[in-house]
Please model this.
Amino acid sequence: MSQSCRIPQHVAIIMDGNGRWAKARGLPRLDGHRAGAENLRRVIGAFAQRGVKYLTLYAFSTENWGRPQLEVRGLLKLLASSIRREAKELDREGVRLMHLGKLDELTPSLQKQVKEALEMTEGNAGITVSVAFNYGGRAEILEAVRHLLSDGVKAEALDDATFSRYLYTAGLPDPDLIIRTGGEMRLSNFLLWQAAYSEYYVTPTYWPDFDEAEVEDALEAYSQRNRRFGGLEPR
Ligand code: FPP
Model:
């Protein structure tokens, strides 16, 4: 396969810029998040069509609880309404849904909704869409270490593969490409362990405007990268 048609197996996205998208239109921030949620289907479809097998979306970080209560409540409601609106259709399209993060800190009814969507789609063979909600990379690593210790894993037995099995992302390949919308150049506590050799792509476009053409641009940029994983030869 030529370099220019290389497709990443796993794409992860930091969906940033909803607030600025709303502000630019004189709208409340929550309208930006609503527009962001409505953009999910289009982007999932575009990546699935291009042959990406795993898509991970950063929807709510452990730090986002510190936002004004109105915004936090709005984001929790959006998760619930997105599942209600989208889960059945995504299931019909063969999408497998996964959740990354601390589910037990969400309300019992939201937990139930998330679990039902995961169970409904778990046998699907299409693109795997992981939604990182109440997710933090450091919290994920600490939780993994606690489990390792309580399982009595011996220091000598600990290697990359064993550690990876204790993360929320157990069973998923590491992301090949991490996209950030909204122009900021930071990782914001996202997939800290898994991002070790990921390629980065940042676009100034706000998340609600990240469309099929933007997906193409990101994939095109990725196809031009030489990945060396610390060695000298491209792999
Ligand atoms: C960052 O924009 C975005 C978020 C904190 C939330 C992302 C959520 C969605 C895309 C929609 C919700 C989806 C689900 C599944 C609930 P920002 O508010 O930091 O934007 P700003 O940097 O312009 O202020």
Notes: The CA atoms of residues 55 and 129 lie 5 Å apart.
